Amino acid sequence: MSFFSFGQSAEIDVVLNDAETRKKAEHKTEDGKKDKYFLFYDGETVSGKVNVTLKNPGKRLEHQGIKIEFVGQIELYYDKGNHHEFVSLVKDLARPGEMTQSQTFDFEFTHVEKPYESYTGQNAEKRMIRRLNDITKELDIVVHTLSTYPELNSSIKMEVGIEDCLHIEFEYNKSKYHLKDVIVGKIYFLLVRIKIKHMEIDIIKRETTGTGPSVYHENDTIAKYEIMDGAPVRGESIPIRLFLAGYDLTPTMRDINKKFSVRYYLNLVLIDEEERRYFKQQEITLWRKGDVVRKSMSHQAAIASQRFEGSAASESALEKAAKEESG
Amino acid sequence: MTDSAVADTRRLNSKPQDLTDAYGPPSNFLEIDVHEPQIVGVGRNRYTTYGVRMRTNLPIFKLKDSCVRRRYSDFEWLKNELERDSKIVVPPLPGKALKRQLPFRGDEGLFDENFIEQRRVGLEQFINRIAGHPLAQNERCLHMFLQDESIDRNYIPGKTIQAAAPEPSTYISTSRH
């Protein structure tokens, strides 16, 4: 679709200022492919340059205005026409007029809010894109939401069973786990009157989309991990040690923009000799831990204080940061 | 806030197991044999009965060692009762073999040795599968089938008496199979 005078067209290129240093994160796209995108956190500034290159230099290019948008949107797959925008910032780069030569425009979205983590699932997708108008060029970025260690993180301990048949007590060391954490737990058998063949623990992801009467759940078994092979008797304790880093997990997302949720459950499954399955599901909260959050923050503070060059304060701040890193 | 680089993966504390529990007989002993086929009756009124011997230490069964004689139609009766009253998916019985009841066969028909053996194996698998199901163990028809001398087809169907009403939140779920 071209609004331009005959014979002229342009190519648009968006380049981030920190493209060399910024980390990239892998992210699954709608068709299941994994691609790498620039990674941003909430509050970070997004800045760069827009290069508009004329295809036929020397010829004029009339345009209705050039602007850049920073958009955060949610798309539910069953409702593809509707994009719900939860962030939308626009900056004008040029007023309507004409261009006679290729130009570069600077842009900066300072400390822009990115409230939600990027997520591509069965039914929902959340991403941040930047685009220009008239001829559009989109640049997808990925956002990760970081958390710190929760203040309250009680263990999960419960006794469950079938009257006179099977009684167990299960325990998981925490209720909130970060994505590279380890689930440490145990299953204690109080009564075993059935013939158990083996026991496994599954991680189930449940994606919920829609509200009110049209709620839709999609369950996905992310992992199946056998923790016991053979028949237990009363008094036996079976340990659990499940490393989460090996699995494709995202943080728990509750009611994102009132549109969708992603929740995780541990499913403890016992299978008897006749292939009957006995199971108990328990929700856990997953959160994303920053890699070197503490270190970078004190380092940034040290660099900021360096603006007052040669001051004793900046020297000691840098020293302190260095100590913290090695300590 | 401690931020250890390596997660603590030590086992959680657990109660030591009592040695009589560790080395004693398991609480889930249940064995049912379908054996000793016998042909009863004469001429065209003959039929085969099988011995159904149950050995168990499950408290839900009144007798720890019982032996009864049952015929194929008794197994059919049990299957129908469970399908009607219980929520379980009842496993299949070996076939009815109607063709074997027709005359002018080359072999012994219903009383052919191989056929009886095949049926015996199928019936044994059937009853073992059911008897181990916690939901089937609540049905009076199962107890009558396994431990009463004869089946009273005019019995009052129902569940065996339960000690206390279960609390739903503390339950493990089972699949119906």
From TrEMBL, chain A:
Full protein name: VPS26, retromer complex component B
Family per record: Belongs to the VPS26 family.
Record's keyword annotation contains Protein biosynthesis: no
The organism's taxonomic lineage, starting at the top: Eukaryota, Metazoa, Chordata, Craniata, Vertebrata
PANTHER family per the UniProt record, alphabetical: VACUOLAR PROTEIN SORTING 26 RELATED
Organism name: Cynoglossus semilaevis
UniProt signal peptide: none
Pfam family, one: Vps26
GO BP, one annotated term: intracellular protein transport
From TrEMBL, chain B:
Any one biological process term the GO annotation gives: protein transport
Region (Disordered): 1-24
Name listed for the protein in its UniProt record: Sorting nexin 12
GO cellular component labels: early endosome membrane; retromer complex
SUPFAM superfamilies reported in the protein's UniProt record: PX domain
Domain PX: 28-152
Organism taxonomic ancestry: Eukaryota, Metazoa, Chordata, Craniata, Vertebrata
PROSITE patterns found in the cross-reference section: PX
InterPro entries: PX_dom, PX_dom_sf, Sorting_Nexin
Keyword Nuclease found: no
Pfam families, per the entry: PX
Keyword Transport part of the UniProt annotation: yes
Family designation: Belongs to the sorting nexin family.
Keywords, comma-separated and alphabetical: Acetylation, Lipid-binding, Phosphoprotein, Protein transport, Transport
GO molecular-function terms, A-Z: phosphatidylinositol-3-phosphate binding
